Amino acid sequence: MNGTRLAISWLTVLPVRGPNEVDRALARQAILLAPVVGALIGSWAAGLLWLFTWAGASAALAGLLVVGALALITRGMHLDGLADTMDGLGSYGPPERARQIMKSGGAGPFGVAGIVFTIGVQAFSFAALADAGRWFAVAIAVATGRVAVVLACRGIAAAPGTGFGVLVANTQSALAPALWFAAASGLAVLAVPDRLWLGPLAVVIGVGASTILVRHCARRFGGLSGDVLGAVIETTVAITAAVLSLAV
């Protein structure tokens, strides 16, 4: 249960107290359970989207409200990680300088642009899915963002000076991400019943794009960090939801 408690305390604002001491073994369990937490959050987001539209909100407003609710339930940590990662990637200095910019605490122009663009894609995609009644697709998109985290914590060392990265980097076996990816792809068949191929394609594209992002960040920053994982979650959700909203 320590791994479950840690996963919930790391990934949500829910009042679940994590273990007092966290080592790599416990961190591995928490990362492995991230998709389970993602499925819970995704189901909640889909229900909230349905509730807003049922109450009379426009699809666009409902989509934006759900994105805001997701930011609240995750303490905004993933958006903060996205902003820091974009600012780091936007710098032209060596990896040490990029990591210093990411730790500065402020949001630069690249970070702000990254947040605005990603929030916009998520909100409009959720709105399109709401119009089409694809509620399960919303849950799949949110959960896939957490599946991408499991893949990101495989085969890449931690960036120097990153406490969270040291805990989670390269903690996952080859089997774990493969199983979660297969599960997400299989369930995604149900996301768009009239186009059974679209759901798995969305998962493949979302996870594939996040994998490219992780590899690029690892080269640029000298390894994996918690900020990169936040960027992985937000971008994967946005891309997966966007693909799922096609042909609405």
Overall outline: globular
Q: Report the count of strand segments.
A: 0
Q: Which structural class matches the secondary elements? A: mainly alpha
Beta-strand percent range? under 5%
Supply Rg: 17 Å
Helicity level: over 70%
Number of discrete helical segments: 12
Segments where pLDDT lies below 50 for 5+ residues? none
H-E string: HHHHHHHHHHHH
Give the mean pLDDT. Answer: 93
The profile of the biggest β sheet is: none
Distance between the termini: 41 Å
Description of the structure:
The chain is mainly α and 248 residues long. 73% of the residues lie in helices and 0% in strands. The protein has twelve helices and no strands. It has helices at residues 2-11, 24-32, 34-54, 59-73, 77-90, 95-102, 109-131, 135-152, 163-168, 175-187, 198-221, 226-244. The longest helix has 24 residues, at 198-221. The termini are far apart.
Keywords:
globular, single chain, mainly alpha, 248 residues
